[in-house]
Design a protein that fits this description.
Elements lengths: L1 E4 L5 E3 L13 E5 L3 H18 L6 E6 L15 E5 L3 H22 L5 H10 L9 E6 L1 H7 L1 H17 L1 E7 L15 E6 L2 E5 L6 E5 L5 H5 L24 E4 L3 E4 L7 E6 L7 E4 L6 E4 L6 H15 L5 E7 L14 E6 L6 H21 L11 E7 L8 H13 L5 E7 L15 E5 L20 E4 L4 E4 L10 H6 L15 E2 L11 E5 L5 E3 L4 E5 L6 H15 L5 E6 L14 E5 L2 H20 L8 E6 L7 H7 L6 H4 L1 E7 L7 H7 L3 E5 L22 E6 L2 E9 L2
Parallel strand pairs: 3-7, 3-8, 4-5, 4-6, 6-7, 15-19, 15-20, 16-17, 16-18, 18-19, 23-33, 26-30, 26-31, 27-28, 27-29, 29-30
Antiparallel strand pairs: 1-2, 1-10, 8-9, 9-10, 11-12, 13-14, 13-22, 20-21, 21-22, 24-25, 24-33, 31-32, 32-33
Helix pairs in contact: 2-5, 4-5, 8-9
């Protein structure tokens, strides 16, 4: 194409063919401090390419490092394959690598070395696919290099081979020295612009000064042009399992992927030079770690692993545990017949059951492998997949924080496969770094924190790289745009063994167990009633967590077990939430006014003093002081209450209190800490240790509580009482 004319009127032409074919070079530079002159010449170059080539014989990729409207006049050009701005540049590396690999494969398959050879062959073999030249125009590569050095690295790797494969690179910069050093030596010519003209510089020749031609008017240039041939191999926005495999449904195996593999799971496609090949992770031969920024799809990648595993094995062959310590992103897969339990940070109603079962997995599997050393003998035993989002907080989930490292370190040898998703490499315990054979990295918030070799590329959601440098796209956890979980569940006609969750509502009359026990709720795991076997009872929780319900349940059980001759109640209920509930015959006092509390406490002290000093021991009913909204008691009132606990076993005194979570122990709770007390921790938003048991609070459904007996934590659903 003509870019200008010399002083004597001779045209100055730029021919992008290799020198061996009469051109001046396949790659070129356009430099000049005067931005307007440089940009006009760049438009002249683009206009010349478009004006002298039909759309089916040339493709253009325009990349602007300044995010301005430099290439806007050419957006409607049918030659335009891509216009990369902003975040679009992150996908350009993969797209260029993919088209480079495609060209190399086509030439190799047909026995050609260069595009020139291929074009000549097409005259005799018109059935060969069209392979048009591709011109990549990059404005201000030096700016792009700062944010996407991987683009510069790709250009440096491919520039040499592109000379033979019909890919041309034109780079526009302010100055030659601004060009990244990695590209030195790849450019065949330079168009250097100044305030009063330009100069064509070709190594080994005299510079040619010239006056740049006037840029063409794009509207007139593009008028009447046909649509583009579309030879650009840009990456798809997203893929799902419908792009990876076909499905088949049988009564014996349910809905499964065709050609399913037992040793690896198909979860996506490879990108870059291997684009189009399936991305399979051999979970049978190593634990899997996924690390990436939360917004870029770590939870969805874990869901895709779970779905991929479910499509490769039946529920008899695979048991899945879903543990989400960072939200509830995995619970959408709870309906899969393979899922044994789905535990989330929002609802950990199966925490104790999951903890107990996972804690016994390694021992159970090691015993199985000892009894049945060959795979044939273990054919009936299901493999185990534990899919984990986030790492358990040792304060909130101490048992799971101890169990999971053992599953990672020892599980692989006995068929327990862990797929762990984290948002930072720093969240992984150092001792576990070497335990993950398969390490997949999505884009990180801090790319410099990556331990993988090379600089981490910035890719889109669900895309990343392996520790070996392969880039991949993970399939969305769907099939042809639809949710597969209901279909997989419906296609499995056999029984499903799933851990039963605690119900959100437990009716008092339906509680199992001995009618002589003081039942307060249902214990997770065992399914047995939670009974009160201590002198005192305390519960702490946020508003609407079930504190008053617990008081009502306690009183209902007390009335069922004891008569007014055996037990009497003094109630303190400033907000009147359980007025006269189930204890009319037992109620001595019902304190609704803080001013009356001191008078009632004086009467209680006198009564207990008489019991303490009785010569032959006291006789009469036990006294239950039941306080709701304990946190509303004044400091003076708590001072009066604390001494009653010291000899409660000798006076028949019982304290039942409920209130908000306390930040620290007071005089009363210090005494409870030393006495026979059951403490329940209801829902709490802050990581606050509950007095007496030191249980760390966490969000829980209404009526759900954590208690500690000995060294073991239990989850309880409090009985609902109207």
């Amino acid at each position: 194409m003509t870019v200008g004319s010399t002083v004597d009127g001779q045209p100055v032409e730029v021919d992008l063919k290799p020198p061996s074919l009469g051109g001046i070079g396949t790659h070129g530079l356009l430099t000049g401090i005067a931005a307007n002159v440089r940009l006009d010449l760049l438009h002249t170059l683009l206009g010349g390419l478009i004006g002298t080539h039909a759309p089916d014989t040339l493709q253009l990729v325009l990349v602007d490092g300044e995010d301005e409207h430099l290439f806007e006049p050419f957006h409607r050009a049918p030659h335009l394959a891509d216009h990369a701005l902003g975040q679009g540049r992150a996908h350009l590396v993969e797209a260029l690598a993919a088209t480079s690999a495609t060209r190399r494969r086509l030439l190799r398959e047909h026995g050609m070395r260069t595009l020139h050879d291929y074009d000549r062959a097409r005259h005799y073999r018109p059935e060969l696919p069209v392979l048009s030249p591709l011109v990549v125009v990059v404005h201000r590569l030096s700016l792009i290099h700062r944010e996407h050095p991987e683009l510069t690295a790709l250009l440096a790797r491919h520039c040499a081979v592109w000379r033979d494969h019909g890919v041309h690179l034109l780079v526009a910069e302010d100055r030659l020295v601004d060009l990244p050093a990695e590209l030195d030596g790849y450019f065949g010519f330079e168009l250097a612009t100044g305030d009063h003209g330009a100069e064509l510089r070709v190594p080994g020749r005299e510079p040619v000064p010239f006056t740049p031609a006037t840029p063409p008017e794009p509207t007139a240039l593009l008028a009447g042009m046909p649509p583009p041939a579309g030879q650009w191999f840009a990456p798809p926005k997203s893929i799902d399992f419908g792009d990876l495999t076909s499905l088949a449904s049988t009564e014996e195996r349910g809905l499964q992927a065709e050609l399913a593999s037992r040793s690896s799971v198909l979860v996506g496609e490879l990108l870059g030079p291997e684009r189009g090949r399936s991305f399979q992770v051999p979970v049978q031969f190593g634990q899997v770690l996924v690390v990436g920024a939360e917004r870029l799809g770590v939870p969805r990648v874990l869901c895709s692993f779970a779905l991929g595993l479910a499509l490769h094995r039946t529920p008899r062959e695979l048991r899945i545990y879903l543990l989400d310590f960072n939200g509830s992103s995995l619970t959408g897969l709870a309906g899969l017949p393979h899922v044994r339990v789905a535990l989330s940070g929002v609802d950990d109603s199966l925490r104790d059951k999951a903890k107990a079962e996972l804690a016994g997995l390694i021992k159970e599997r090691e015993e199985l492998y000892h009894r049945c050393p060959t795979p044939e003998e273990r054919a009936e035993a299901a493999a185990i997949a534990v899919i984990v989002h986030g790492w358990p907080d040792p304060d909130l989930h101490p048992e799971l924080a101890r169990v999971l490292p053992q599953l990672v370190l020892r599980g692989q040898a006995v068929g327990v496969h862990v797929v762990l998703g984290l948002h930072r490499w720093a969240d992984l315990e150092p001792r576990l770094h070497g335990a993950f054979r398969h390490r997949l990295e999505l884009t990180l918030d801090d790319p410099d924190s990556s331990p993988l070799p090379g600089r981490a590329p910035r890719l889109g959601p669900m895309r990343g790289r392996t520790s070996e440098g392969q880039t991949f796209a993970i399939a969305e956890p769907r099939y042809a745009g639809r949710d597969l979980v209901p279909e997989i569940a419906a296609a499995w006609p056999h029984p499903v063994q799933r851990l039963a969750a605690l119900p959100y509502k437990v009716v008092y009359a339906e509680l199992p167990g001995d009618a002589r026990s003081h039942k307060l709720g249902l214990v997770e795991g065992s399914g047995l009633p939670f009974t009160l076997n201590t002198r005192h009872l305390a519960c702490f929780g946020d508003p609407a967590s079930g504190r008053s319900t617990l008081i009502k349940t306690f009183l209902r059980g007390l009335v069922a077990l004891r008569s007014p001759e055996q037990a009497r109640v003094v109630g303190v209920d400033y907000r009147r939430t359980w007025f006269n509930a189930y204890c009319e015959g037992m109620l001595l006092e019902y304190v609704r006014d803080p001013g009356k509390f001191e008078t009632v406490m004086a009467e209680i002290r006198q009564s207990l003093d008489r019991r303490r000093t009785a010569e032959h021991g006291w006789q009469g009913p036990d006294l239950y002081l039941v306080i709701d909204d304990y946190d509303l008691l004044s400091t003076k009132s708590r001072h009066q209450l604390a001494p009653l606990l010291t000899e409660a076993d000798k006076t028949g005194f019982h304290l039942v209190l409920a209130g908000r979570h306390l930040a620290q122990l007071d005089e009363v709770t210090k005494e409870l800490d030393r006495t026979d007390t059951t403490v329940l921790a209801l829902s709490g938003g802050l990581k606050t240790p509950t007095p007496v048991t030191r249980i760390i609070t966490r969000p829980l459904p209404p009526g759900r509580a954590i208690t500690r007996r000995g060294t073991t934590e239990e989850t309880v659903q409090i009985t609902w009482t109207e």
